[in-house]
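Extended Data, record Transposase putative helix-turn-helix domain-containing protein
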Amino acid sequence: MNLSQKIRIFPDSEQEEILWILSEKCRLIYNFALTERIDSWKNKGKYVSYFKQQNNLPKLKVKYPEHKWVYSKVLQYILRTLGADYRSFFSLFKKGDKNARPPKFKGKKYFTSMVYNQSGFKIDKGFISLSHKHPSKIKLKFKIPNKFKFDKIHQVSVFMKDEKFFISITYDKKVKDYVYNKKYQAFDLGIMKHTGVNLDGKFIELKNSRVDKYWQKRVQEIQ
């Protein structure tokens, strides 16, 4: 079973500067690729695939050597994200979603998340290290709290939220063998809230913060 764990990291000023520099290169790659797709469709009526853009990455790195600072798979994942953004847009558009919007250019003031998929990271003795080739050679090494233990890690994402840095670790978690304990739980999956209760009398209620999105499509159909 794959799970994700969000962990806050505390980069010093030098590390934070490197993270922003690498993020900026990722932002530019996303915007370059988006521009290429838009121009190709407008001028030639042709669709540019993820694979074509990925194969062109080496040429782009020759033209813009600074992009070599970013770990190669991180840049590949940026292109994959753009492809996923387009697929999501087309899927919603075909279903008649009037709020469907194509991917937009990423602004410079926002930190572009970086995803290390399968490689480019290492966890050792309670620290995680992230690969890069910036000339400064500043190590991106961050403390992992002792309470977190991971067996096999598939992916590490670096992102910002509320002006704080985080990593999200996607890992394998062994599923415990099923043991019948003669206890039952019941859930009522309503539109505005979900309610659950078990035989011990424990009660939980979760509210849907965007119930308007559920009704929006139905209102549009009636109109």
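Summary. The chain has two domains: 2-172, 185-222.
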